[in-house]
Amino acid sequence: MLTAGLTQQKEFRREFKVNQGNLRLDQFLANQSVQLTRSRLHSLINQGHVRLNGRLVKPAQKVRAGDIISLVVPPPRELDLTPEAILLEVVYQDPDLMVVNKPAGLSVHPGPGHPRGTLVNGLLACCPDIQGIGGVLRPGIVHRLDKDTSGLMMIAKTDHAHLNLSEQIKFRLVAKGYLALATGMMQSSEGIIDAPIARDPRNRQKMAVVNGGKESRTRYRVVEEFDSGSLLELYLESGRTHQIRVHLAYLGHPLLGDSVYGRVSPKLGRQFLHAHHLSFKHPSNGERLDFRTNLPEDLEAVLGSFRGSGSQI
Fold first, then answer.
1. Which residues are annotated as catalytic?
2. Per-residue model confidence (pLDDT) at position 293
3. Residue 9 and residue 278: Cα distance in Å, rounded?
4. DSSP line for 237-288
5. Is the Cα torsion angle 182, 186, 192, 195 positive or negative in sign?
6. pLDDT of res. 10
7. Can 3-73 and 89-306 be said to share one CATH topology?
8. Mean pLDDT, the chain, integer
9. In the predicted model, what is the mean pLDDT of residues 66-85?
10. What is the pTM (predicted TM-score) of this model?
11. 3-class SS of residue 185
């Protein structure tokens, strides 16, 4: 297994002899239990870290029986990230992974305008044993939440966990449930929103339902109704950027407080969206893990203002 080499943060070398050919090079390597994602292997091949019979080749090169393949995994490169003592609510942690309850207002990754004060900076401080995931020394973010969306996120602490959890997401084995307050009254008490999503051709900073976009499905059910809004529980059957926000706006029921796909609200300074349920198999022992979290105080306060009051959104 390759994991031991990766945990030492050193260059790792391995050689393979092809017994059965007619596979793409990246596909062959992905089948060799190297515990690297196919996209990572694709990058290593393009960067010249893989040789076929001593020659540089492309990821799509077909291998033949008797070929010798050498793989070099360089040590993870360091990112210019500063560990920061950011208060994080850790719901679960073991040597393979952790689950955190991300607060609203906290970006997951550093980026333009927010180089510090992110979830990644906080993870680097609280988890010094994080391994090099995906070729860089950083915590293994497996999935993301928008800055102003609160709720549960799983974090991989090893390459094996990162690969396994990523595969579970890819094959839709992870349950990700959300609570959301949609404006207006839903026509049905439950249903599936099946509408493809892509970049908005009129505004590349936004996503939209677009013919020819990526398949996107969201299941919902109405939990509670108000005069002009509906509390929904939603589950993603795909993982597109802003999927819930885009799908509800497409139906004409944008989230309360969604300034991008709806409109701002005097009651709430962000969109009403909380990832309250996360369920997946443990990457090492296959045990099903199930986590739930309550609405944060700001969202609970908004609900309290509507319950039994007939208040308008």
1. 146
2. 97
3. 31
4. SS--TTHHHHHHHHTT-PBTT-TTTS--BTTBSS--EEEEEEEEE-TTT--E
5. negative
6. 64
7. no
8. 87
9. 80
10. 0.76
11. coil
Q: Which two tokens stand for residue 148?
A: 């102003």
Residue 257 gets the label, from left (phi > 0), alpha (psi -120 to 50) or beta, of left
* Structure tokens that stand for 191 in this block: 């249903």
268 burial type by CB count under 10 A (0-12 exposed, 13-18 middle, 19+ buried): buried
Average pLDDT over residues 29-52: 83
Paired residues of 12 in beta bridges: 73
pLDDT of residue 133 exceeding 70: no
CATH topology of domain 3-73: 3.10.290
Read off the tokens for 212.
């020819």
Round to whole Å and give the CA distance between 268 and 257.
6
Question: Which 8-state DSSP code applies to residue 65?
Answer: T
With 0-12 CB in 10 A as exposed, 13-18 as middle and 19+ as buried, what is 55? exposed
- Worst-scoring range by mean pLDDT, 23-32, 126-135, 246-255? 126-135
CA dist list (Å): 100 to 33, 88, 131, 273: 29, 7, 18, 16
Domain locations along the chain: 3-73, 89-306
Alpha helix positions (H), the chain: 3-7, 25-30, 38-46, 119-126, 159-170, 243-250, 297-306
Q: What CATH architecture does domain 89-306 belong to?
A: 2-Layer Sandwich (3.30)
Region 158-171: mean pLDDT is 87
